[in-house]
Write a structure and sequence with these properties.
By secondary structure, the protein is of the alpha/beta class. It has helices spanning 2-65, 87-100, 118-127, 153-165; strands at 77-82, 109-114, 133-137, 143-148, 171-172. It has a 5-stranded mixed sheet. The radius of gyration is 34 Å and the shape is elongated. It starts with a helix and ends with a strand.
């Protein structure tokens, strides 16, 4: 009888130890799950924040680029009369941006007059030009040169350099 009680006690101890180990492993696993979830949420927050920053920065840049009030702001300005659905306009825009990249920041302003908007269409009508056109203005807002049609970046660079030096003459191509 004594042996039975002793063996029952030892079995009870073993069962109790096994249960407490199981509880510890469940606690450990739930702690791991919480930490894993926290890590994944942190990574997700960083990705969303970065994406949001890029889109916000792009939006601000686009809005600034379409601000036609920047003509006559004291800096020479290149205005592209642009139709976003026209492949020639997009090609001219790419060449213009490449040419502008050859100058220091702040030397020239670049503005897009989108003819699909009322303001852009009114701007194009005021100067009597179609899309696929660049208008070069001096710092006072006086039109110095009109470049119509597709151009290459080095040709544009020469026209922009002439505008900066003040030797651009009122020419229409």
């Amino acid at each position: 009888m004594k042996k039975q009680r002793k063996s029952a006690r030892s079995n009870a101890k073993k069962t109790h130890q096994t249960k407490s180990r199981g509880a510890r492993s469940e606690t450990g696993e739930s702690r791991r799950n919480v930490l894993r979830l926290a890590r994944n949420l942190g990574i997700g927050a960083v990705l969303l924040g970065g994406t949001g920053y890029v889109f916000a920065n792009n939006f601000v840049s686009m809005k600034h680029e379409h601000d036609l009030t920047r003509v006559a702001n004291g800096r020479p300005t290149v205005v592209q009369v642009h139709d976003p659905q026209c492949p020639l306009c997009r090609a001219l825009q790419e060449e213009t941006r490449s040419a502008l990249a050859m100058f220091e920041d702040g030397e020239l302003d670049y503005v897009v007059a989108n003819i699909r908007t009322d303001k852009g269409q009114a701007f194009a009508n005021r100067y009597g030009v179609p899309h696929v056109t660049l208008l070069l203005f001096d710092g006072n807002g006086e039109l110095k040169e009109v470049l119509q049609g597709e151009r290459r970046q080095y040709e544009l660079r020469n026209s922009f350099q002439a505008l900066l030096s003040g030797s651009a003459v009122e020419r229409t191509y």
